[in-house]
Design goal:
Elements (H helix, E strand, L loop, with lengths): L1 H24 L5 H4 L2 E6 L10 E6 L11 E6 L5 E5 L7 E2 L2 E7 L7 E8 L2 E9 L12 E5 L9 H4 E5 L18 E7 L10 E6 L5 E2 L4 E2 L2 E2 L5 E2 L4 E5 L12 E6 L5 E7 L7 E5 L2 E5 L24 E2 L2 H4 L7 E10 L8 E5 L4 E5 L12 E12 L2 E5 L6 E6 L6 E2 L13 E12 L2 E5 L3 E5 L16 E11 L2 E5 L6 E5 L8 H33 L2
Parallel strand pairs: 22-23, 25-27, 29-30, 32-34
Antiparallel strand pairs: 1-2, 1-9, 2-6, 3-4, 3-7, 5-6, 7-8, 9-10, 11-12, 11-20, 12-17, 13-16, 14-15, 14-18, 18-19, 20-21, 23-24, 23-26, 24-25, 26-27, 26-28, 30-31, 30-33, 31-32, 33-34, 33-35
Helix pairs in contact: 1-5
Length: 537
């Protein structure tokens, strides 16, 4: 009887082991295998009459799916999951499409990951909003849709576009909008005699039709509402209407259409009070007679204009205390050359501080880490970080060459605005890692971003690993982040071990159970053999 029970238990344990192994190690079903995808997402309301958000599931086989075994899961940026079990009532079928009404504000407009699961198996996953790279939030009447319809390459940025809603029908890319090339900058006034509020940029529409500038960008400002410039009209935009930001010492002004194409650009040098820079049959000249809203008139000043005082040469820390648009000369050592972190800027530092050096046209001399340079430019801030804008290669003079600077060792707790722009080094523990980004903690948390231009291969790391990180401290609004420059800037100095979770816990449990059963069976067999041996004597 005991031997029969032992065989039964031993057989049961093998069956459990086999079933567990199949469950744990079977590959997850992919959307491409089942041909079922999250095809369209509507994460905001179009009006007070349409008060629900929805997600569309596409089944190209037009088969009948048992929706009761499916669940939509919203995962927030912090990792919190919100589940919405599906049913035929929630997702009525219309041909190849199931449209699931999700209620009010269930999807996070600011960004989330939407996952389609069948029982415990992930079928499809879509990141949108702030969690998807370069993904804008749809506006009223728009949704996030797979283009072409149903395509799943595994790359959300390539598969999804913001297009007009096609609820319950094929996603279609609307024909491209052709933006006029006959609207261009005609006159600018960087330094009005009456004050900066009266700075203006004048556009002219030389086409035969009216043009709506909604979504166009003029210098630093964007037209957020419908703005019509009529055929043949001279239209003036002042600093009070749209942020212009013309600098007195020279700059580049662009008119950019909603596709990001520059339709008109003007580069100007040092301005003179009360004079505008105007277009005369394709030739730009300074005129003492600004003509906002009218045909340009050329009048040249006969006397020598007042010259600005000599540009001050200061250290970097002093420069960062000066106001925007102030002209400065600074010297420093290159810590991150052009092309490493961006093609439009690089970083220098001296004994006092570090700062970003920017050029819109990417015009820099050939620079290496350790080069000592003297820079002439104009101070500005972008997203809270100080920079010096240069306008020509000649604004950057190489003085001599030094070894690359060593990072300044500090701690996360001690990081503040004074370190922004400097090459620093910290040690911390990995708290989150994904792609080219990870976070470390050590008396505070900070983000680490590995830029493609650095050619740094991110080391294999796990949450809990202790790492030493060096890089430029950058600022984006109220957030600090470190940008490594070379491969040696990211080092794992200690391995951390986290407690098992999720499927690993079940695997460990079943493994322990199976081992226990096997040992119990062996002991029973040993006992039985011992009894048989004793009986024989």
């Amino acid at each position: 009887m005991g031997r029969g029970i032992s065989k039964t238990l031993f057989g049961f344990s093998l069956a459990v082991f086999a079933a567990t192994t199949i469950f744990l190690f079977s590959p997850k079903t992919k959307a491409a295998d089942d041909h079922i995808v999250i095809n369209e997402i509507y994460p905001n309301q179009i009006s007070d009459d349409v008060d629900t958000e929805w997600a569309e599931i596409f089944d190209p086989d037009d088969s009948v799916i048992d929706l009761n075994s499916y669940t939509l899961v919203k995962i927030t940026g912090s990792g919190t999951e919100y589940k919405k079990p599906l049913s035929p009532a929630l997702c009525p079928k219309d041909g190849e499409y199931y449209v699931c009404d999700l209620g009010v504000n269930w999807l996070a407009n600011s960004g989330a990951t939407l996952v389609l699961r069948k029982n415990f198996i992930e079928i499809d996953r879509v990141a949108f909003g702030s969690l998807a790279e370069n993904a804008p939030i749809p506006s009223q009447g728009q949704s996030i849709s797979r283009i072409p319809n149903g395509q799943d390459t595994g790359n959300d940025a390539a598969d999804f576009q913001i297009v007009p809603i096609t609820r319950g029908s094929e996603n279609i890319l609307p024909p491209p909008v052709v933006y006029s090339s006959k609207v261009y900058i005609n006159e600018i006034l960087p330094q009005p005699a009456t004050g900066s509020d009266d700075e203006f940029i004048e556009l002219i529409n030389s086409s035969d039709v009216d043009v709506d500038l909604l979504g166009w960008q003029l210098d630093a400002g964007t037209f957020g509402i419908s703005t019509i410039i009529k055929s043949g009209e001279y239209r003036v935009f002042k600093n009070l209407e749209i942020k212009i930001g013309l600098t007195d010492t020279g700059d580049i002004t662009n008119l950019i259409d909603p596709d990001g194409e520059i339709k008109s650009t003007v580069s100007y040098g040092k301005s003179f009070r009360g004079q505008s820079f105007a277009n005369f049959l394709g030739t730009w000249q300074w005129t003492t007679t600004p003509t906002p809203g009218e045909e340009n008139k050329l009048t040249i000043e006969t006397s020598t204009p007042d010259q600005d005082p000599t540009i001050s040469q200061v250290d970097i820390a002093t420069a960062k205390k000066l106001p925007d648009d102030e002209s400065v000369i600074v010297s420093g050592i290159v810590s991150a050359p052009p092309g490493k972190l961006s093609s439009q800027y690089f970083y220098v530092q001296d004994q006092t501080a570090g700062i970003q050096i920017y050029n819109y046209n990417k015009e820099f001399p050939v620079l290496s880490a350790g080069d000592e340079v003297q820079l002439t430019g104009v101070l500005a801030t972008t997203a809270g970080e100080w920079r010096i804008k240069t306008f020509a290669v000649s604004d950057i003079q190489i003085i001599q060459t030094h070894p690359p600077p060593a990072p300044v060792k500090t701690t996360i707790a001690d990081i503040n605005n004074n370190f922004v722009g400097q090459y620093i080094s910290i040690i911390g523990t990995v708290t989150k890692t994904s792609g080219s980004t990870f976070y470390i903690h050590g008396s505070g948390e900070i983000e680490i971003i590995i830029r493609a231009g650095t050619d740094i291969t991110k080391p294999k790391m796990r949450v809990g690993d202790k790492v030493q990180v060096a890089g430029i401290l950058s600022q984006y609004n109220d957030t600090f982040r470190i940008l490594p420059i070379v491969q040696s800037d990211v080092k794992i100095v200690g391995s951390g071990k986290l407690p098992a979770t999720g499927e690993n816990v079940f695997f460990s449990f079943f493994t322990a159970l199976i081992i226990t059963i096997i040992i119990w069976n062996i002991r029973q067999k040993v006992r039985q053999r011992r009894k048989n041996w004793l009986k024989s004597y």
